[in-house]
Design goal:
The protein is about 35% helix and about 20% strand. The protein is built from four helices and four strands. A four-stranded mixed beta sheet has the order 1-3-2-4, with helices on both faces.
């Protein structure tokens, strides 16, 4: 099961594939955290109630704290920027780690 946030413009098939590959490699949960510490992508291998409860805690803003539970193997994806306001868009435009088309100004 893969959950993805709609407000992360760099989210693409490559990131989804990386999360699923973490699960295939044996991780219990795979996630990528945005600059606000909330996950932008979260994957679990099955709809297990315990894992989904941890995922819910992560979505409430406690990404790493939610997984500070013994026995959970966590796969971490790279950081991405969430676009929740105009300031986030300005920050994205000047972020040196942002790739390609995301850095281009909008066409009019």
């Amino acid at each position: 099961m893969l959950l993805a946030a709609p407000d992360v413009p760099a989210l693409d098939a490559r990131l989804a594939r990386a999360a699923l590959e973490d699960l295939a490699a044996g991780c219990d949960i795979a996630l990528g955290a945005a600059h606000d510490a909330r996950p932008y992508i979260l994957a679990v291998p099955r709809p297990d109630p315990e894992l989904l409860a941890l995922a819910e805690r992560a979505l409430d803003g406690g990404v790493l704290g939610a997984f500070a539970v013994g026995g959970i193997t966590l796969g971490m994806l790279r950081h991405e920027r969430r676009l929740a306001c105009a300031g986030d868009a300005r920050a994205l435009a000047i972020d040196p780690l942002v790739r390609g088309r995301l850095r281009e100004p909008p066409r009019r």
